[in-house]
Amino acid sequence: MRFVVVTGMSGSGKRTAMKMLEDVGFYCVDNLPVPLIEKFVELVATPNGEINKVALGLDVRADQPFGDAQLILDKLRENGYMFEILFMEASDPVLLKRYKETRRMHPLSPDGRVEEGVHKEREILQGIKKKADYVIDTSNLLTRELKEEIDHIFVRNEEYNSLMVSVVSFGFKYGIPADADLVFDVRFLPNPFYIDELKHKTGNDKEVQEYVMNFAEASLFLDKLTDMLGFLIPNYVKEGKHQLVIGIGCTGGKHRSVTLANELYAKMKDHGNYGTKLYHRDIKQGV
């Protein structure tokens, strides 16, 4: 039997993840009272039972201490029960924005500020997050991208190291992305902007792509960048990093940076050990 415990920050997408697991054949139970967890696991783990895939959702709630749930999980593991922990994560600004949009109260701060509840919850969950088998940060994920990650882990059963790599093209004239971990400047390449027939096209157009990549320096840069990321990413994973944002910039964010971002994404997206996404931040600026 495959048994998955789904937990994480309120507002990070736990309910959505549970629904996706249900869609792929998991028997899902959410918000089970803490005292019933152990008995529930014993029941579903009965040999030759009809249920072979189970997902149990655990939330931080004001009416019962989450520490008790962690103790029960530790006890179950000591008694030989096998389970995986999926931890759903999102940054504080994103969580606050989501609460503001839905006008919901935080479960740990029903009469106070949402920010206080988020901070309390993060402190409470830091222990179980360290024990998690998978961490999915939904700060920049679309619903379909979350589904891809869920399928990656629980349907295709591929190796997963809880890292989401975002490749972002941008224009320096509009500022460096605030969340970028690594920034690369491709303004050393000739600018298609000064070619009349390419000026109003972008790096998503074949003509621009061919123009940029026909320069030997572009291919050499891409090879060296790919090689460096091959070294960096495993070490980021080792240190527990869950989000890596790679910024590739040119002057306006339409031609060179878009082309190189597309090329890098194409090289990385089928790697299999981590999630990848592509975003062209400034491609529509000035249109």
Structural account:
- With 287 residues, the protein is of the alpha/beta class.
- The chain folds into 2 domains: 2-154, 3-Layer(aba) Sandwich (Rossmann fold); 164-280, no CATH class.
- The chain has 9 helices and 9 strands.
- The protein has helices at residues 14-23, 37-44, 66-78, 92-102, 114-131, 143-154, 206-213, 216-238, 256-268, and strands spanning 2-8, 27-30, 53-57, 84-89, 134-137, 164-171, 182-185, 243-250, 275-280.
- A 5-stranded parallel β-sheet has the order 2-3-1-4-5, with helices on both faces. It has a 4-stranded parallel β-sheet with strand order 7-8-6-9, covered by helices on one side.
- The protein is elongated and about 70 Å long.
**Mean pLDDT score:** 90
Specify the biggest β-sheet: 5 strands, parallel
Number of helices: 9
CATH architecture of the largest domain: 3-Layer(aba) Sandwich
Based on secondary structure, the structural category is: alpha/beta
**Strand and helix order:** EHEHEHEHHEHEEHHEHE
